[in-house]
Amino acid sequence: MEADLLEWFAAEGLVRYSASASEDGEVIERAHPPLVALGPRDDDFALPPHPDRLRYEGKLLHEMNLQDYNAFVFHWFEAAVHAGDARCANCGRVLRDEPDLPPTDTWDAIFVEKDLVAWMLVHFDCKRWLSKKLKGVQTFDLHPRETPEYQLATPVNHAEERGEHSTS
Length: 168
Known about the structure:
Helices cover 23% and strands 18% of the residues. By secondary structure, it is of the alpha+beta class. It has a domain at 34-149. Strands 4-3-6-5 form a 4-stranded mixed beta sheet, with helices on one face. Strands 1-2 form a two-stranded antiparallel sheet. It is globular, with a radius of gyration of 18 Å.
C-alpha cells in the first residue's frame, strides 16, 4: 500500500493497530488499513484503491475528506460491478449493472467502521443480516489481495487543470 494513502487513513482514524511478540520476545507492531470487499468471502477483501494512482478525475487524495473518498470508492465499486467482479457481501450473488433492477437486486455501497474497517457492496434486502455475518471479523485476521484496477473516467492531469505546466 502506498505510504501517502496509509497516512491519509491514519489521519482519518481508519487504521487499526495490532501488537504481537516473536518467539525471541521482540514486539511486532502492525498497521492494518481499511479494506474493500468485492464479495462475502475472506479472499474477496482487497486493499483500498488510491485515487491518484487511478487518475481519478475528482479530487486528489490530499484534497479529500472522508466523504470525498467515500464518493471515489462508490465510483470504483460501480466500475467493479460493471466489470462483473462484485458480489453481495452477505449473500454472494453477483451484483448487476442494469437500469430498473427489481427490488431484490438493488444494491448499495456501505462503510463499516468497527473492528473491521471496510467498504463493501450489499443488496438492500441483505443489509439487515450483514452485521450478524460480520460479527467477530477483524482486519487483523484477513489477508487482502492487491487492489483491482478499473478505469473510472478519462485520465486527468491535475497539474494542467491548475495551470501548472511541466518544464521537461
